[in-house]
Amino acid sequence: MIIHLLSGFDTGPVPVFSLILGATLIGTAICLFAIWRFIRPLHHLAEALMKYPQDKSVLKLPSGGADEIAIVTDAAKSMLWQVEELTKKLKHQATTDFLTGLGNRRWLTEQLPAAQSQAERANEPLSLVLFDLDRFKQINDDYGHDVGDNVLMIVGEIVKDSLRPYDLASRIGGEEFCILLPRTSGEDAINIAERLRVAFETSYLDPLPKGRITCSFGVVQAATDERLQQLLRRADTALYRAKDAGRNTVIGVFADKSI
Predict the structure, then answer these.
(1) For the chain, how long is the longest CA-to-CA vector?
(2) Pairing mode of beta strands 250-254, 257-258
(3) Which residue, of 22, 69, 138, 184, has the greatest Cβ tally within 10 A?
(4) What is the 3-state secondary structure (H, E, C) of 52-81?
(5) Is the pLDDT of residue 63 over 70?
(6) What is the DSSP letter of 180?
(7) Residue 217: pLDDT above 80?
């Protein structure tokens, strides 16, 4: 307006009013645009937070800047990174046996459908080995629970050292273990179980006598649509046959025959 007046333009009310109105509209538009540019990152943050459970996009937002919105964005990302790490730890604890480091029954239940689907797509066999420690309660009674825990840990280490990278091992009960063997026929699973049986029998833990750590094994080959409970039931039948045969034995049940 000052420039308008100094330039000698018409100072009548209509031109001045038009100038003031135009300047006000332009200034308002500029202010609104500036505010929009300023709060746009906050809008992006809100959208990312809403999508976080599905795609974790908030963790990909760029950092930087010293304004309040940048500080809020960085704080939100830091908090969510902590949530992610805590979630991973909780999931690991929920699906892992703390004593042996193997998976637990819940983890095995989650893994079986994917293993069956993969076996069906590749037209490959899938087998399961169920085994438990022989007279484990007697070890706890005679030598104490600390020795019993050490026995379980030794068994877990032997299992982890003996299996292939894609095999799935878990502790599903007190002294009961289960191994899911992709790409493995029932006969091959028996050979794997036999190697484990020998490894357990030749292991040593003071003060137990050598050869005291033994296991009995039941082996079955899975059908494509068989649930974990059905598999375990069949494997449990084979396991009890191994117990009846004198323990420290491997029994496989396939197509109504035992091996």
Answers:
(1) 116
(2) antiparallel
(3) 184
(4) HHHHCHHHHCCCCCCCHHHHHHHHHHHHHH
(5) no
(6) E
(7) yes
